[in-house]
Amino acid sequence: MIKIGIINKGPVLNWGKNFGYWFILKYFRDELKEAGYDITFFDNFSKKFFDSDFIIIDSRLITDTYSNKIKKRFGLGVNYDFLEYVLEISKKNSNIVWLDLTDSSGTTSFEVLPYVKKYVKKQFYKDKNFYRKSFFRDRYYADFYQKKFFLEKDIKFNVHTLLNEYDDKLILGWNIGVGNFFDIINSNISNKYLSLFKSLVGNDFKKLYKNCLGFYFDKQKSHDVFCSFNLRKNEDKKSIHFQRKRVFSILNERYKLSSSRLNHKTYLNRLMQSKVSVGAFGWGEVCYREFEAIKMGAAVVFPKVDYLETWPNIYRDNFSYLSYELDFSNLIERIEMILNDKDLRENLVENSQTIYKNVYSEKGLNYIIDFFKKITS
To answer: What class is the 215-359 domain?
Structure first.
């Protein structure tokens, strides 16, 4: 039995902590133990944590961009840079699996590679040579927009490029699509926390899964296009936020979108009644919005991401979504294509929902078991 310790941040009765990125491991806990992997979650860097055979560390806990408050909570102090933390941790357990949970495929902390066994990320560039280049704001798409539209003044970045000798340390993990959302459509907030409390007391995450948002597919839609973004008003980091603003502007001219904020239940119901959900990148490429759209039965139009690898991979062009070019040249064309072709639209929804449903099936379990084989080899 291989013992694996994982730091899991956040208070116990926090839906995101228990129903988010780590939920898939809690759901498959018994199956993983049968496969030889004993997974234990810890709230701090304790002796028991370090006594694990392998330790998985969320990069957000100790990178120098994280808050001093969080560092203090985990007993880290505030006077070290994050590489010094890694070195101190490696003295207690050198089998470190560094989990890079930053949003973008391009934002990395490769400076830790000499000190860790494996480096896991939610999504990678397929071509690892991308990591030997320097992109504006460490993002392929931000670099594209900066070069095409000259959005910001020239900024120098301290990029730690990937060395060939560390390529084998890179292991693809899973993205935020494994997280689940409470079924607010058929319930309420009080039931949300009551069900969370009961399931955590009973340590029954399969029971907890039954309270998550299900899959809907209403073929009679009352709305054509849904597009709702958090449009940042500040002018900082224009190259990152440019895509959302331009997409909303283009679509608003044609479809007269609403920019008002919606509560979550209204937001989901609007998605359910929409034929098409149009997405764009945020701080990174993979966003919750597309997974919510799939659950609610809307066909997804999203920027082309054929340069990425991720899991679950809902980004299979012309199969589970339709892509548009980064320069927006075919954005309206792709939306109109999907609006005018009901068979295509329904096929995209069915295929994307099948991919998503497979996450919590034998296929998903096999993916997770294979992941642990890779990080412990």
So the answer is: alpha beta
